[in-house]
Structure formats: C-alpha cells, structure tokens
Amino acid sequence: MTTVRDIVHHLEFLMPWSNGECETVDQLVFGGLEDLVHGVAVTFIASYEVLQEAVQQGANLIISHEGLFYQHMGGLDALNQDPVCSEKLEYIVKNNLAVYRLHDRPHRTRPDWIVQGMAKRLGWRDMMGDGYRTFFDAPIVQLPPVSLGQLINQIKKSFCLSQVRVVGHSALNCRRVGLLPGYRGGGAAAIPYLRQADLDVIIVGEGPEWETAEYVRDAVAMGHAKAMVVIGHQQSEEAGMEMIADSLRDLVAPIPVRFIPLYPVFRVL
C-alpha cells in the first residue's frame, strides 16, 4: 500500500534539498498525503489534456513541474470566478486526483535535475565541466568545434523541433555552451553567465525578448562571437521531468509511473 506521502519521501530522497532554506512552491496542491496511489503521472505541466490522459491510464497522482492555474506562485484566489479554472478544478475533484507541484526541489538540488535532463537529451552529460558560480546550476559544456548552424540542427533533432529562434551568425564557431532551461533566459541570469563564463552560445528556454536577445544582437554587431538559441520553456524542461519519472519508477515498483509529454503549446502558422 503506497501513499502520496511515500511518493513524496522518494522524491525527497532523489533530490535531497532542504526546502527550509527559502520559500518554495513545492507542495501537495490537491489530495491528501495518506491517499493511496494507484499510478503516478509525471509531466512538465498538468494541463487539462494531461489530466485526462492520466485518468485514462489509471494514474491518480500527478507530479507537475509547473503550476496548474497560470501563475508561478499558484493559488486560485484571483481566478476563482474564471470558467477555465473552474472546469479544470471540477475535473480534478471529480476524478479524485492528487496533484503534487515539483518545481524547486529538482532545480535546487545539485546537480540540477532539469539542467541534467536538458544535457542528457543533447547527449552532453559527459561534456559538462565546472559551472559558472551563481545561485543556479550553470554548467559549461565544452564541445568539439562546431558551427552554430550545425549546433542548431542537433538541437532541433534532439528536441524534435521544426524550428528554433536564434540570435547570431550560423557560421559562428561554437566550443563553449551554456544551458539555461525554463525562464532563466532573462538578462539578470543570462548576460553575466554568457560574459563571465566566456561562452560562445547559450541555449535557453525563454526570457524577456528585450533583454538577453538584444544584448547578443549588439554583441554580434560589434564583432563579438556570441549567439543565443531559444527553444521554449516546455522543451527545455520536459527532459528533466522525464528523467525524474525514470528514477522514481525504480523506487516505487510495482506502482506504475508514466511520463506524459505535451505537444508544443504554440503552433507556427
């Protein structure tokens, strides 16, 4: 008999970060810690479609990296009159689902599980050296010389993307690469990393378009060998959650643990 509390303890074992260090969004959002678990679904974000698939697969505990209701800090206080939020909440309650938010623990454990998943998807886990010293895990990947154009093709193939967004020249010779999954592509995190770690290119999930992208645009115009590749928040973090699902599966057998990927949120028309 496995409970939600048991699964949470396994997650804490895999990712030994003390959440007493600072405020965290990691918590059981719905359900009870003593609820029995029949199946686990791990995902980047518990979208309505993911919830439906989890129910179809017999999973009653969903582990979601991002929040359910379109705000990082969560809560329904400002959205409790919204029909989309209400219908999603109704579905969770109707199907007796437990939902656990797992965001900070994988990021704050060293090494960062989300960064490691991104590197694994690219085949770079063995190429990561000492990171740039900062409050987040910022590895430096040392590659054999490759052009930015070739690197972009590898990224698109690894993440099954038809296109990515790029600032920089395709002929740029890339050796030192930085990984910034999720929302770390903003200027406060990315620009010092790019400069102080002497990176040729950073691969980011997302960030304000008028910060790092404009810095790189100006750097390129000045003749500096810099580039930025934007692959999307979801695409940059899903692989880390899949890695967590794979590791959790070994600990909780015979409880089935499934990773549920999502289609890209945007269509390109």
Task: Tell me the layout of helices and strands.
Blueprint: H1 4-14, E1 27-30, E2 40-45, H2 48-56, E3 61-66, H3 83-94, E4 98-101, H4 104-108, H5 113-122, E5 128-129, E6 140-147, H6 148-159, E7 165-167, E8 173-180, H7 187-196, E9 201-204, H8 212-221, E10 227-230, H9 233-252, E11 257-260
Parallel strand pairs: 2-3, 2-11, 3-4, 8-9, 9-10
Antiparallel strand pairs: 1-4, 5-6, 6-8, 7-10
Helix pairs in contact: 1-9, 5-9
GO cellular component, one term: cytoplasm
Keywords: Metal-binding
Organism: Alicyclobacillus hesperidum
Number of helices: 9
By helix and strand content, what is the structural category?
alpha/beta
Low-confidence stretches: none
Helical residue percent band = 25-40%
User: Which geometry do the CA atoms define?
Assistant: elongated
**Biggest sheet strand line-up:** 5-6-8-9-10-7
The string of secondary-structure elements, in order, is HEEHEHEHHEEHEEHEHEHE
- How many angstroms separate the termini? 49 Å
Strand content: 15-25%
Rg from Cα: 19 Å
Report the major sheet: 6 strands, mixed
E-strand count: 11
Mean pLDDT across residues: 93
Please identify the oligomeric state. single chain
